């Protein structure tokens, strides 16, 4: 496949037609893919997992982003830290298992030994002149947003993480991520560019035709619609849905559960959005029967009917918080045409499998939905490769948040390209 | 493997030594491969299948050429049309199965719905300002030569298709392709550049040593020979073969079956060749016992002993028409070192399997021959990768049509490179 | 993965910090990989196998190095020759099996037939003007060092092969390679750059932590150590080891077995090193019980306790010669991140399996050790890909021969880059 980008990246960014999908090179060019890794994933806050991924001292989780490998580790003081997963001797990868527990971080090659604080404690045969303190592990910035872990690979991370945390924290806190456990984790490799995975997530225009399981708990009118295309009956139904959302929202907020939409997807460096919406049927959870999948509710929650709180962050995550469980998604680019979607299911840390929850019931909706989305991403990747592809129009009623994802993405690329030109 | 082309493509074309195989970059360079897709497969008439591939309204066949996907569809008026297989919304591939039957062409992603005429009939949620007529499928040029389907991906296809159709039509028409059915279709991925697949087809110098099945129906003297290398006996046999060809030819032409060689492989844009030659043994068909494989003959034919009509087109097809069945081959480049050979076997549409024909007997000669050729193509690809490879001489007696293929190919490249320079 | 080399290769060579591992592009860049093939493997003496690989006239062995394929063949006069494995007609690969026996070298495509002397004997249909003598196989330089076969792909091989042969010959000769047979051959594809495979071989700092089998016959003090890090007990043990080496060496030399280290790894074009060291335990062979694995000793040897003679050549080989068997290793780059390690086990040609030797006992130490090293090479490759990798310090006591490998490699690259600039 040709990798030629017909014009410069800056020109591609400038000439983008608002309201339309991106030009093909954004999905196929390996040169732009390298920029995505360098700028988008190299200089922004990237969601990588949850505190319960490393519950105890010495617990490690490895996260690979492009050519970079990071080890996230809980230290003896219970703080979580992140390091480049590279020995300072001859560069061997330090930790190989996706998750493991260690006393110290010992390189298998020549047994160079680092503490959980990243400091080189011991290296044999190096002689007198050798200064261990010059060979500590290289740290990576890490922040926790109420238990959601974000890393930033840049020396100077975007400074607006605190603003996001202040805004999203009250929404997430009642679901008490820190007192959950990860009961299922699935890595799915989608056959498309990472932006197609994100765009697919940013709209539900495709849900009706493709997600028979997910559309059980989700209300169709929540996906958006063009009012002028509706008949009398539909207009009345849509009106009733809007009232329901308003009433539920008010009730939840009265319980101390922030619910109203906050949306800063394309007007800040660390873009985000949150909204709590009612669930159809029994109204409890994103399950096949819309009832809770885990009898033990999260944190101090007692009411199962809390709808679904959706949290999105740019560039690479979304999360569904219900009263009984959380499903959390992180997107990692693998190549211009391959993307890792990592999904984790969390329940209360004291919930007992077989008693409080059944793993299949807990996971079946999103396992099915992810598989369907992966196919759609693949079909789109196949299509946009064609020279016959040209950007098409987004629906102003159902795809406006796809547009905001594209806006954010292009603005972030442009900001860093400008930086470089300035230098 | 290095992809460096030591000199410019124009220089490589200019310095080609007539009568010798091409320099290595033509078989290995991904840059030249891109040119082949763009110029050879992007601006010439490409053979892709037969009318019986889509016998009924709504029948679709997908053809992928490089990054381009085309859907060939029979519409309700029984006309055959071709479109780019890309939704005009967000670019998803429309039709995924190699062959299928549809009512309309509906995109799976968001259900945008196109008629068999390519027009966008329906797209939900797009609002008032949206003009469906600006979002029809993009058409692709398609022509049928007595049932053989050719597409051209260029805006302006070569204008000499009609000339080829006028010349080849009378040869092909008696075999009545439109009233056949495809009873077997095999996709073989050959481990070499597409031009090695074509060159392998353009000579039978290799047949004696490699094709024990195919050389049963084919006469060895039909492969060519150097007269000066023959002894007395061979010379006499060759003379008798020449007389037989002349006599059969005259007899078939008297029956209304054009048989004499017409050859325009390298003197026109849409190169072609046709010739009907006797078959050895029982003289009926390219089978292991040289008798017909299908009792029901094609069209209105009644005489099984019609030899084999071979039709070649540049750049990518060959076909064998016998009294009882047709074998038709299309070649599609997949990568510099991988090529799809798609073979289809056709019999009369009313022939009944198990009664009129046995599928194994029908297909065994060419299934074996294709596998043998694929190995030879692979060996050649492995060899020409070596810096030690240098172009070697073609036999002036058995490889002159390989030379014509190379001539045509280089001339077509050169013509379009010149175009571009002119612009 | 990005292939961009941030600075020129010359600059990378110049700025290399002595005593430190190489910068990442040397292990990851496909551009530098091409230079490695062209300069290091294209212009130096490359170890490819042993005379017993082709014991009889007509025996062939194929060796593939990058895009080049070479056939090594024993001719009727028992001389060993090497040719490019490419037919002079249309470039097909001539010999496909890794090892085979032929009468003549016949191309499968069109039966062009070459003698074992490489001369084209026969080509059909080429007509009167065709001169076979212009179409002989292209020869490749080949030399034998007491039965070890080296080829050089350059027109003008380095002239110092004789010097290496004169120095190493007396060490190797008593083991009589020519009268051995290859009883096991294993191809292992290591997941790393070929230089990581070589560097791994050039030190035993990693042996204690990774090679439980190999460290049975090898003495730990032979791996090197920093004297200032030792306690009283260790110092005494190290002293005793040094005396033992000195005494054994003297005894073996008295028997006519050169044993003292000769080392020219980075001060000549064809770098090499040899040393015979005692074996631990029973002192006989690199086996799990440190006793000979083959009852019939090599050549005219009668004493099983001859330690292990290690021979290294730059850029791509190492060999262990014991009294009873030889293990010989050749390293061939496959891609920037894949390397072939070809290991052969040799015993006396008259030894009988099941009587004189047991194949599992013979091979188990190095099969295990190779698998462990392959993992370490893979971990290092994964780590050096990271932008967080920076060259780390070699131990001056245990990794000085890794340093010499790097020195040799960089000097050889630089010499040929200069050549080119001069031209």
TrEMBL record, chains A, B, C:
Signal peptide: none annotated. The keyword Iron-sulfur applies. InterPro entries: Rieske_2Fe-2S, Rieske_2Fe-2S_sf, Ring_hydroxy_dOase_asu_C_dom, Rng_hydr_dOase-A. It comes from the Bacteria. Residues 47-151 form the Rieske domain. Keywords: 2Fe-2S, Dioxygenase, Iron, Iron-sulfur, Metal-binding, Oxidoreductase. Its cofactor is Fe cation. GO terms for molecular function: dioxygenase activity. PANTHER family: CHOLINE MONOOXYGENASE, CHLOROPLASTIC (PTHR43756:SF5). This is Aromatic ring-hydroxylating dioxygenase subunit alpha. It comes from Benzoatithermus flavus.
């Amino acid at each position: 496949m040709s990798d030629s980008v017909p014009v410069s990246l800056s020109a591609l960014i400038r000439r983008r037609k608002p309201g339309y999908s991106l030009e093909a090179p954004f999905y196929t060019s390996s040169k732009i893919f390298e920029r995505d890794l360098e700028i988008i994933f190299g200089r922004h806050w990237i969601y990588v997992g949850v505190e319960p991924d490393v519950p105890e001292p010495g617990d490690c989780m490895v996260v690979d982003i492009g050519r970079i490998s990071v080890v996230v580790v809980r230290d003896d003081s219970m703080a979580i830290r992140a390091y480049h997963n590279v020995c300072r001797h001859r560069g061997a990868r330090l930790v190989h298992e996706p998750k493991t527990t260690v006393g110290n971080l010992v390189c298998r090659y020549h047994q160079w030994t680092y503490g959980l604080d990243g400091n080189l404690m011991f290296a044999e045969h190096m002689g007198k002149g050798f200064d261990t303190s010059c060979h500590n592990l290289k740290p990576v910035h890490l922040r926790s947003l109420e238990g959601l872990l974000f890393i930033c690979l840049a020396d100077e991370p975007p400074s607006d993480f605190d603003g996001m945390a202040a805004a999203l924290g009250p929404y997430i806190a009642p679901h008490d991520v820190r007192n959950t456990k990860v009961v299922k984790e699935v890595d799915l490799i989608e056959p498309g560019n990472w932006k197609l995975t994100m765009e697919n997530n940013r709209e539900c225009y495709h849900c009706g035709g493709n997600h028979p399981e997910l559309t059980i708990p989700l209300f169709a009118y929540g996906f958006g619609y063009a009012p002028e295309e509706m008949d009398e009956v539909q207009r009345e139904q849509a009106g009733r849905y809007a009232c329901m959302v308003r009433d539920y929202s008010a009730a939840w907020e009265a319980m101390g559960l922030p619910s109203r939409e906050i949306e800063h997807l394309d007007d800040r460096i660390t873009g985000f959005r949150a909204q709590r919406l009612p669930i159809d049927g029994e109204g409890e959870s994103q399950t096949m029967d819309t009832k809770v999948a885990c009898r033990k509710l999260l944190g101090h929650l007692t009411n199962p009917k809390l709808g679904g709180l959706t949290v999105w962050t740019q560039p690479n995550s979304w999360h569904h918080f219900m009263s009984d469980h959380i499903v959390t998604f992180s997107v990692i680019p693998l190549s211009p045409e391959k993307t890792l979607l990592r999904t984790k299911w969390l329940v209360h840390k004291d919930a007992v499998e077989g008693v409080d929850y059944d793993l299949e019931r807990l996971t079946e909706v999103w396992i099915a939905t992810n598989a369907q989305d992966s196919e759609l991403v693949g079909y789109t990747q196949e299509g946009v490769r064609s020279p016959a592809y040209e950007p098409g129009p987004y629906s102003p009623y159902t795809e406006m948040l796809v547009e905001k994802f594209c806006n954010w993405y292009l603005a972030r690329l442009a900001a860093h390209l400008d930086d470089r030109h300035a230098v």
